[in-house]
Known about the structure:
The protein is mainly alpha-helical. It has three helices and two strands, in the order αβαβα. Helices cover 67% and strands 7% of the residues. A two-stranded antiparallel sheet has the order 1-2.
Amino acid sequence: MKIVIRTVVFHMLCILIFAGFYYYLKDHFQRQIDEKFTVLDYILLSTTIQAGVGISDIYPISFYGKIVMIVQQILMIFTHVFTLYIFNL
């Protein structure tokens, strides 16, 4: 049970940390509709990437935005693979 709680906490921290990165790099992202970004938009973007769903209506327009999204996706994939490995021991 401790592993499940640790995994959930890890994913929540990843979502918040990467939302902070996206907010910091907000000039490197664009939206399909010209509206102002809010903090909730960056949390939504981070959550959809962490869940493996994909991206929301915000997408990267620069090299740095793409790199941060790729790092979060790779981290998410390795975490899921590692968690499946632990549960199948």
